[in-house]
Amino acid sequence: MKNGFLVFLVSLVVLGGSWCGFVLAPVLQLGGQKQTTILNSSDLYPVGRPGMANQGLQVYRANGCAACHTEQVQQDGVACDVVLTSAGKTPLAVTNAISSLKLTGLDKGTADAAVDKINAAGGKAEIHITATGPDISRGWGLRHSVAEDFLYDDPVQLGSVRIGPDLADVGTRRPDANWQLLHLYAPQSVVNGSAMPPFRYLFRVQKIGGEPSPDALNLPKAFTPPAGYEVVPTAQAEELAAYLLSLQADVPLHDAPFTQPLAVSKP
Amino acid sequence: MSTNAKFGGASVPASRLVSSLAPPGEISSTDIDRSCCIPLLALFGGAALWLVVGSVLALIASIKFHAPDFLANCACLTYGRLQPVADDALLYGFCLPAGLGVALWLLARLSGTPLRGAIVPIVAANLWHLGVFVGLAGILIGDSSGFAWLEFPRGGSVPIFFAYLLLALWSIMIFAGRRGRTLYPSQWFLVAALFWFPWIYSSANLFLLTSPVRGVAQAVIGWWFANNLLVVWTGLVGLGAAFYFLPKITGRPLQSHYLALFAFWTFILFATWCGIPPGAPVPAWMPTLSAVAAAWLLVPWLAVFLVVWQTVHGSVRSSWNNTTFCFVGSGIDAFLLSGLMLMAMACPQISRFTNFTWFGSAETQLRLYGFFAMTMFGAVYYILPRAVGLEFPFPKLARVHFWLSLAGIALLVVPLAIGGIVQGWKLQHPDIVAFADTTKAMLPFLRVSTTGLLLMLLGNLLFFANVMGLTLRWKIALLKQFIAFVKSPLETTSASASLRRDKEVRA
Lengths: 267, 507
Description:
heterodimer; A: alpha+beta; Cytochrome Bc1 Complex, Chain D, domain 2; CATH 3.30.1390; 2 domains; two-stranded antiparallel sheet; 6 strands; 36% helix; B: mainly alpha; Cytochrome C Oxidase, Chain A; 19 helices; globular; disordered N terminus
C-alpha cells in the first residue's frame, strides 16, 4: 500500500494547505470582523439593514438576482485635488506658491507636497479625494466595495457577471421605492429597452374594490392592467425593494477614502 | 514496461489483450467489467437524464435574453432560478455521477479486482439522483442557498454527500484490493479526486449553510469550493480517464509516467489555490495569491500538453475512426484551451476586460462541457457496452453526437468569449459607451450561443437515446433469461436429469 498511501498523503497535504489558506484564514481574519468608524467621524459603519431589507435579501437570493447583477464596485485609484481654504496673512506669497503648483488630479504624495508648500507660504489648504475608475464614472458608487459593506449579509451576494448594472450602491442612485417597484413589475416601463425579465409574479393584479389600494402601482399607459384592475406589490416585492434601497455603500472609510461631495445629486 | 503491451494495438480487442496477459488464476477483464454492470447503468442512466434536463433548461434560460417576457409569469422559470438549475443539472446531475462511474470502472480495471457488494453503489447511485432531484426542485421553488455551484438546499446536499461517500468508499476498497503494487498514473488522479469532493463539499456546506461565517469570508469560501470542484475535481477525473483511454486507443504507451505524475503533483498544488477573482472586496492577499497560483498553472499545463502530444502524436489519423478517441481527444484540447483562458483571466492586464463579463461563463462551459462532459461521453461509450455485455442500439449515432456536441460547444463558447471581451472593453469605457449599450452589444453573440445550446441539446438527446436503449436491451435480455429459466425445467428435463446425475457422481 506504499504508493497508494502516498497519493492519499499528498492530496491531504495539498488540499489541507489550500483549506488553511482560503477557508481557515478568511474565517480567522474576516469572521470576527467588527464595525468600523466612518472616515473623519465617530459614527460606526455598517449599522445593519432594517428587518424588511433583510427579508428582501432572501427574496434576492431565492430569485437568483446575483445571476445577472454584481454588488462589487471596482476602483482604479484616487485623484486628489488641493483646495485652498484660507489665504492666511500673506495672500501674495500663497498666490505665488499656488501659481507654480498643479492642484487637480494629483496622487496622494504630490497633493501632500502641494499642501505643505501652501502651508509654508502661510495659507491653509486641504485635500479632496475622489475615487477613479470606470465603475465610479458610471455613477455606480463613490468608492470601491470593501469587506465591511457585507458584514451583516447572509448570504453575501457579490455576483460574478454584469448582465445588468452593479447594485452595490443602487439605494443611493435610485432612492425611490416606487421606482424600484415599477422597475420590478415592468422594467421596460422605466428603463427603455431594458433586458431585465419582468418580475410580475411578485405582484398581484386585483379588481379595484371600492377605493383603489394606496399601494397600487402608478404605471405608464402601455403597462396598465385592464380597466377596473390595479397592480399591487406582494410582501416579497416590498421587501425586495426595501433591500435594494438599503444597498448604500456611500460613506468614506479608512480603506476606501473619498471626500463627501457637498450635495449628492445623481440622476 | 508492460504498459506498451497492456495498452496494445487498437485492432486487438482490449479485453482479450489484457486477459491473455493475465497470469493464471487472475480474474478476466470481462468479469471485472460485468461486476460493474448495474451500478454503472444506474449512474450513467440517471446522468444521461439530467444531462438532457439541464440542456433543455439552459436553452430556455438562454431564450430569455432575446425575449425577456418569455415564461416570465412563473416564479419557477425566472432566469435567476433556471440558470443555476441548468448549471447544477450539468455539474451534479451529469458530471459527478458520470465521473464517479468512470472512476469506479477504471479503478476496478486497473486494479484487476472485480466489484463486490454491488448493491451498495447501486443504492448510492439512486440516492445520488434522488438528491439531485430534490436539490434542483429546491432551487426552482426558491430554496437556493445563493452560493454559486453550491445552490442545493439541505434536502439535496445531504443525500448526494452520503451517496458520494459510499461510492468513493467502494472505489477505494477496490483500489486497496488491487493486485499489482505499482500504480498507473490514472489511479493517482482518480484516488485524489475521490478524496477531494467530500472535503470541499462538507467544508463549504458547514461554513456557508450549517453555521454561516460572517461577511465576505462566505464569498471566499464559496470561490474556493467552486474552484476546487470545477477546476481541480473535474481536472483530476478527466485527466485520469484521458491518460487511460488515449494510450489504450492509440496503442502507444503513456509518454511518460514520470511526466504524468509531475503533471498530477503540480496540477493539484497550483490549481487548488486559484479561484479568488481579482478586485474582489476581500483582503488583497487573497486575489493576489490566486493570481500567482493561476500563473504557475502553466507548469502542469505544459506537462499535460507534453504527455498528450507525445502519446497521441502520429496516431491521431489512425485512431480518428474511434468515437471514444474523438471525444477524449477533443476533451483534452478543451482542457488545454480552458486552462489558457483561466490563466488569462487571472492576469491583471487581461482581467480588466474579462472580469464580470461573459468570458468567465465561456471558460466554465468549455471546462464543464467541452472538457469534462466530452471526456465522459467517450468513456461511457467505451465502458458501458463492455460492462453490460451488449452493444449500443444506435452505435452510429455516437458519431453524430460527437459532431453535434463539438459544433454546439464551439458555437456556445466562442461567441461568449469574444462577446465577453467586447463587453469588458465597453464596460471599461463609460465615457463613450452607456451601460444599456453594453447589454445590447451582447445580443448577437448570445443569439449564436443559443444556437450552440440547441445543437448540444440534440447531441445530448442522442446520448440519452443510446444509454436508455442499451438499458432497455439489457432489461429485455434479463427478462429473456428469466423466462428461459422459468421454462427450462419443463422443456429440458433430460438436461436437468443429467445435471442431477453429475452431482450424484461428484458427491
